[in-house]
Amino acid sequence: MKAQNSNGACKQVINNAKTRLQRSAKSSLVVSIKNAAHDYPDAPVNRKRVIVFYLDYFKDPRPQVRVGIQNILQSPQLIKSISQNIISKCASTGAVYFGSTFQAGCPVYLGLMRNGTIEIFEPIVPGELSREIKWGENYCY
């Protein structure tokens, strides 16, 4: 997948995703960027950036917030659509992370795979691997 090389388009698609997630979850949302190389030595060379969306249940623990967060994290279509938009507009982004204080054990990672598709990373329980984690895998605690 060849991404557009426009910083403005990248910021806009991230802001659109933030608005969409906040409306769906009705919760506070933190957006940050991390370097994929810290967790993944085999991260794509020119796509070392991970966009992190972290939904905060503790700031507003109403039942509808919990349900909104669950609906997002259990909607592969929604998170894949958001991830595809971000990865296609942000040239240095290789993955998108969706996490929550409500469902802290296993965040959802989607990333650009070597074959050009965007896929959900495989959940791995720590201790199951006798090697370093690879691009396309995600530790669940």
Provide a descriptive summary of the structure in words.
- The structure is a single chain.
- Helix 1 (7-25) runs antiparallel to helix 3.
- The strands form 2 sheets. The protein has a 5-stranded mixed sheet with strand order 1-2-3-4-5, covered by helices on one side. Strands 6-7 form a two-stranded parallel ribbon.
- It has 3 helices and 7 strands.
- The chain has one domain (7-139).
- Helix content is 31%, strand content 27%.
- With 141 residues, it is of the alpha/beta class.
Question: What's the topology here?
Answer:
Blueprint: H1 7-25, E1 28-35, E2 49-56, H2 63-73, H3 76-89, E3 93-100, E4 108-112, E5 118-120, E6 122-124, E7 137-139
Parallel strand pairs: 2-3, 6-7
Antiparallel strand pairs: 1-2, 3-4, 4-5
Helix pairs in contact: 1-3
